Prior knowledge:
143 residues, alpha/beta, Peroxisomal Thiolase, Chain A, domain 1, 3 strands
Amino acid sequence: MPEAYIYDHVHTPRGRGKKDGALHEVPTVRLAASTLQAIEERNKLDTKLIDDVILGCVDPIGEAGGDIARAAVFTADYDNSVPGMQINRSCASGLDAVNMGAGQAMTGQHDLVVSGGVESMSRIGLGASGGAWAVDPQVALPS
């Protein structure tokens, strides 16, 4: 089985996840696109060679909804042929995106995958998508 290699890594800027945090004015897709642009510039990467962009995002709603990976591909001005996939695995979304990309390389499915995670807790707070995080106080929970 072929091996997968990590050639570079980039981290988005960090700030406090508050409504007035340092990054509260930066849309989530812009954070993701800035990392894609850095990978391209630092490695003189021809984006036509990228087989997939996989991004983990916990609460895929609002500006982080739809397919943020594909939106980031467009925002970063990557080649239009580059697909994007968003996954939500709660706290392990970014890690699972990297694992999925490595798996695609190791099985020969893809040669070049860019993967990672993106969140903006200042703009889309934890539990914003509802579900188990948004417990209705009027519903009795089992004791």
